[in-house]
Amino acid sequence: MDGPPEQGRDYNYGMARSGCVFCAIIAGDEPADVVLERDGAIGFLDRTPLFRGHVLVVPRAHVVTLPELADVGPFFEAVQLVAAAIPVALGAQGTFVAINNVVSQSVPHLHAHVVPRTRGDGLRGFFWPRSKYAPGEAEVIADRLRAALP
Fold it and tell me: Which of 5, 45, 103, 147 has the fewest CB atoms in 10 Å of its CB?
């Protein structure tokens, strides 16, 4: 197939999909620690991060996979901004950026994981431990990331 799939009944381009938690976050109906808001994308802290500061960047348009996203520019610009902000805001040495398409995609809405990395952090392979934020910790990290983003 060349390019993204055609719009049709299986694709809900530009519209929120009922029952999609990410669409609810975008609409402001579901709480999230938002660190970045742009016309084409939004970034917020993952509720069960690999490491503190793990951000999910999602396009505002409801699409399930990357090949379905008609205009990738605004989405990847947001990913790039978050990847640049994490080392500055959190003292990380770098980031890991990943996108699952269908397999291992816990929410059926395209999203990029932007994860802070440091040498020796223990992240190996694809069997990564998840954790939760301590009370108030997510807000502090979200504030730091917001301050580091343009």
Answer: 103
Measure the CA–CA gap between 113 and 55, rounded to whole angstroms: 6
Q: For 2-25, what is each residue's pLDDT tens digit?
A: 333 333 323 333 446 778 999 999
- Asked whether the beta carbons of 116 and 32 are under 8 A apart, the reply is no
Taking the model in full, what pTM does it have?
0.79
Task: Say if domain 33-122+130-148 classifies as CATH 3.30.428.10.
Answer: yes
Q: Please say whether the beta carbons of 62 and 109 come within 8 A.
A: yes
What CA–CA distance (Å, rounded) separates 149 from 146?
A: 5
- Domain segments of the chain as ranges: 33-122+130-148
